[in-house]
Design brief:
The complex is a heterodimer of chains A (113) and B (116). Chain A is mostly beta strands and 113 residues long. Chain A has no helices and 11 strands. In chain A, the strands form 2 sheets. In chain A, strands 2, 4, 5, 6, 9, 10 and 11 form a 7-stranded mixed sheet that branches. In chain B, strands 2, 5, 6, 10, 11 and 12 form a 6-stranded mixed sheet that branches. In chain B, strands 3-9-8-7 form a 4-stranded antiparallel sheet, with no helix packed on it. In chain B, strands 1-4 form a two-stranded antiparallel sheet. Classes of the chains: A mainly beta (113), B mainly beta (116).
Chain lengths: 113, 116
Amino acid sequence: DGGITQSPKYLFRKEGQNVTLSCEQNLNHDAMYWYRQDPGQGLRLIYYSQIVNDFQKGDIAEGYSVSREKKESFPLTVTSAQKNPTAFYLCASSMTSSGNTIYFGEGSWLTVV
Amino acid sequence: GNSVTQMEGPVTLSEEAFLTINCTYTATGYPSLFWYVQYPGEGLQLLLKATKADDKGSNKGFEATYRKETTSFHLEKGSVQVSDSAVYFCALSDPGRGSTLGRLYFGRGTQLTVWP
């Protein structure tokens, strides 16, 4: 089945550690996105990528890094510089970055302990 | 800039009641408008969308009409069910200039709970 796969679903991290969240899509979409969701705040854009080997910062990129070496993959690293990393992270993709419908993965819960 | 304001929740209704969740927006260009739904512990699913003024998006009994004159995209359903309990997000995608093409701007979400 076509879709967006995020892993792991649940992740615990100790303070000071980096962690990488995986996002893979087999929809042949050009654009991919990472959003962060906190209770009562909606979704905020962390990073997005319109094509392979290119990506741009969103509204809250500090403490995060991404790569886009393959069209189908857009991993997100939450670094130790992110002050409040506990959140629900959503990966998304779209056919092009021209306003087409954006589809979401199931999300990854990150908890810092 | 671009922003979305939606009705704050939580909204609690009895089964078969009429639902309205208000959504208004500001945009620099001519946005596409979306409603997404999120069930507990899951990602977001597209519920409906409209890409130009006066378009009506509809799906699963939900409807929303793109009103440019009032910059609104209110979500309605004539008779809600328990299974409609979820968080609903209004969003816009502004196909404007530069490198921000295609990104979504979200409202804060409205929690809907439907009781039998």
